[in-house]
Amino acid sequence: MPEYQVLIAGAGPTGLVMANILGSFGIATLLVEANASTVSEPRAVSIDDESLRTMQYLGLIDKVRAQIVPGYGSYYHSAAGACFARVLPDIMDYGFPRRSAFRQPLLEAQLREGLGRFPCVHTRFRTRVTHLRDAGDSVSIDLRSDEGVLETVRARYVAACDGARSGIREALKIPMGGSTYEQRWLIVDLAGSTDRFRHTRVYCDPARPALALPGPHGTRRYEFMLQPGESPEDLLVESRVRSLMARHSAEDAGLEITRKVVYQFHARIAARWRAGNIFLAGDAAHLTPPFAGQGMNSGVRDAHNLAWKLALALRGELGEGVLDTYESERKPHAWSLIQMAVTMGRVMMPVSAIYAFATQWGLRALSLYPPARDYVMQMKYKPKPRFDDGLIVHGVGAQLCGRMFPQPMVETEDSRLVPLDEMLGGGFSMVELEEPGVVPQALGAARLPVRRVRVIGRDERFVADAAVLAGAVRVRDASGALERALRASGVRAVVLRPDRYVAAGIALAAGPQEADRALEAIVRLSERKPAVAGPPAAAELVVTPWQAGRS
């Protein structure tokens, strides 16, 4: 029986990101996908700063960035056509624009190509999971190819990234909570657009809510809400589709239509994200309304959070208890983004002219007060990723612990300006202020390997006689952002996890052994016994009738 450390079901963005991260850690991984290839039709169209930071972590950011429209915003229009609100975020806390337009087929192809770097990652397309048997110490998985070839493999863990209709989730009998909304939307994808306007137009018209989104390479997407009594078949007629677009743009109404489909949106989340050695991720774990563009991005966050924890647990660098922090960290943030999308939908889909008038004038009034205006303009309403529970050592640096660390530009000793993450490596890292005249302390025999990055001030220069620790790298804080962030939280150093969240802070006046104690505390947290026992031995799951293999 072939053996793997992790089997991933589903080669959508979630599964592909997870496979790339596991591959970078040398984890023997099998990625199975029911379809013949990655997607060819456009699906998700918005990629955010956190997901781009993950692409940077994967070493694929240059390829991905070459195929996106970076930093687009949204203009909100009333039924009369007047623009009553603009969302144009230009802050880049994590090193990338808050929102960029992309094409999912291109991204998936890039992620699949990236797997070629890792001999430990195997892929099987046209292959379905049919049975899972969790014996407690491993899972045996029955696979069936499109040609009817049957095979059984074994894996220590399984990641179910098999989409909204996850066969694995259904086999586990894990319910989905939340709501499915009655509103249906017509999606129309176009090619050949020459419109130079680079932002989304949102038409908040009670008679027909709609939006038009720009994409790379002259692509464009329209979305129209169906009204009560309208059938999908009626609106999918090409002449009807073109007449809807003509209300907003005569040019767009004449473009090539590459895809048109009607869908219903959901705001739902799985009751549990883990059952024994099986984990849910992406659409298998949560379904998000499209209004915030966070569906795929939430799946990428899942993949990054879970993959490095699986890798370090399998390598013995952390205890298996770290896997229990996946759901406790990701589920609250995923739900907060679902709620944000629902709220945004209320603005985009006014139920009446009176409601639309009140909402639009409310937003106009907010624009008169600069803090409120910036709250909307800079997308500060988007819940920032923060973990209150999980692999976090609380007590020192409360402003930073559990948060994603900022990524400013730093200067290297050979005078290159690079994003901070380029210096951090793929595992745990420690970012610390280097103080003139203070001899740096070497770390002790902590069990957790860590890369050490020492930061000199913005107004300082590298000097040849500075005390340099073996294996440490030194950078200059080119913008002053790192020193501000650390000192504001009362720390001289932070321990960063592979997903760039702050796991622990080290106080400004800490003694020489404080860093060792912080690293040991992280390891001890990962060794906590799970709160809930695993499944009974030889628990068998029959995966039917889905396993579409997508997330």
Helices and strands in order:
Blueprint: E1 3-9, H1 13-24, E2 29-33, E3 46-48, H2 49-57, H3 61-65, E4 69-70, E5 74-77, E6 83-87, E7 99-101, H4 104-114, E8 121-125, E9 127-134, E10 139-145, E11 150-160, H5 167-171, E12 176-191, E13 200-203, E14 210-214, E15 220-225, H6 232-235, H7 238-246, H8 250-253, E16 256-270, E17 274-275, E18 278-280, E19 286-287, H9 295-314, H10 325-348, H11 353-366, H12 370-377, E20 409-412, E21 417-419, E22 428-433, E23 450-456, E24 473-477, H13 481-488, E25 491-496, E26 502-507, H14 514-526, E27 539-542
Parallel strand pairs: 1-2, 1-11, 2-8, 5-13, 11-18, 22-23, 23-24
Antiparallel strand pairs: 3-7, 4-7, 5-6, 9-10, 9-27, 10-11, 12-15, 12-16, 13-14, 14-15, 16-19, 17-18, 20-21, 20-24, 22-25, 25-26
Q: Helix content range of the residues, please?
A: 25-40%
For the record, the CATH class of the largest domain is Alpha Beta
- Evaluate the radius of gyration: 24 Å
Tell me, rounded to a whole number, the average pLDDT.
Answer: 86
- Contiguous low-pLDDT stretches (5 residues minimum) are 373-380, 545-549
Major β-sheet profile: 9 strands, mixed
> What is CATH's topology name of the largest domain?
FAD/NAD(P)-binding domain
Separate helix tally: 14
Task: Please give the number of β-strands.
Answer: 27
When the domains are counted, the total is 3
The coarse overall form would be globular
The oligomeric status of these chains comes to single chain
Derived from helix and strand composition plus strand pairing, the structural class reads: alpha+beta
What would you say the CATH architecture of the largest domain is?
Answer: 3-Layer(bba) Sandwich
Span between N and C termini? 28 Å
